[in-house]
Amino acid sequence: MDYFTEVKDVVTYEGPDSKNPLAYKWFNKDQVVAGKTMGETLRYAVAYWHTYKGSGADMFGVGTYDRPWDKGSSPLEIAAMTLDANFEFCQKLGVDYYCFHDRDIAPEGDTFAESCKNLDHVVALAEKKQNETGIKLLWGTACLFVHPRYACGAGTSSNLGVFATASSQIKHAMDATAQLGGENYVFWGGREGYDTLLNTNLKQELDSFASFLQMAVDYKKKIGFTGQFLIEPKPCEPTKHQYDHDSATVISFLREYDLIDHFKLNIEANHATLAGHTFEHELAIASNAGLLGSVDANRGDVMLGWDTDQFPTNLYDAVYAMMIIQKQGGLGSGGLNFDAKVRRASTDTVDLFHAHIGAMDTFARGLLIAQQIIDDGALDAEIADRYSSWDSELGKSILAGTCSFDELDAQVLSSGEPELRSGRQEYLENIVNTYI
Ligand code: XLS
Ligand code: NI
Ligand code: NI
């Protein structure tokens, strides 16, 4: 069946002058930028949960979308139809990857064991579809936040039975991801946090969460899964406080529990802003630690304080992000996953195309601009110059740990007040604007 009749063949690149809403203006998959094709660098992925399972429901109203792949006669038939829709959509968009939660692709059964069976069934279908189409799995994950048993967390639950069930669910989700050749596996701690400290043993929860992740590391080794483990920070929502608050918090948690060699970070733009940071701040902190592994590309609304998961259309955000990604030499096995949903009133399936095309063009254009800025070296030269006093013998000795306060004291008392230099922020912002 053809679920997306509005696009007959595939969406193609027509260039910046095109007025065709169903064509790329900037994303030219085979165009080489800095030695790699745009397709190889950007590694776009479609998020299964928003694109096919999103209904348009919100806190105040029911679903608004009427999707043809929902019209099956049983949950497993709907799952198979949705899978077909996914592969058709990815093929028509020219996107090579998709991402899922276990419970997105396969329905919850009456019992946990039945849910596991459903997953096995759908994964076998997905494997067949992947082989037929060449579409690949960027990452899989387990949904440990919808089912009522996870109301107080999964890997941080106060209830050992819940912790054990979550462990089992992750084991099955990792098996599924491995079977489908997933290139990464994501941990987003949806309810791994607390709502009130009055009922919370912080130390117990952080310790058990570390054990949870350690067992995942052990299991990964056991089954020979070679994908990258990723942790996705978010400060809150649905919990009042989530332990994986932001990049810096996650990195220090991983160091504290000796897990740092086994994980990288998956940075989501809207989670960064929820944490009171910019997207580029979160990317930069992760990249600086050598831990930027993948990106959930979306955006929030500056006027709203929650995870609105909108499609990314802000060119400045994309440029800043791509500067960081290009400077670290790309995302490796990671990619840009559109963890984003069309608005509740965007009810047509063609809206899914408009949303993805716009987002893909935004990051493609961001890549072109970022690479130009990097190649011209305009900002790098300014930064190098700004820190040039550290190139001195004294600067080197401080960084090598061979200097002392006494030495600096003597130096300062004889040389006097240091020269004041402008930070030149406005000048640098103007430079960026000459490229945009
Ligand atoms: C929710 C998260 C979620 C993760 C995957 O806010 O972004 O969608 O990406 O569990
Ligand atoms: Ni996400
Ligand atoms: Ni999110």
Biggest sheet: strands side by side, in what order?
Answer: 3-4-5-6-8-10-11-12
Mean pLDDT: 97
Within the CATH hierarchy, at the fold level, what is the topology of the largest domain?
TIM Barrel
Q: Uncertain segments of ≥5 residues (pLDDT<50)?
A: none
Strand residue content: 5-15%
Number of domains: 2
Tally of DSSP helical segments? 16
Q: What compounds sit in this structure?
A: D-xylose, nickel (II) ion
Order of H and E elements: EEHEHHEHHEHEEHEEHEHHEHEHHHHH
> What name goes with the CATH superfamily of the largest domain?
Divalent-metal-dependent TIM barrel enzymes
- What distance separates the N and C termini? 42 Å
- CATH first level of the largest domain: Alpha Beta
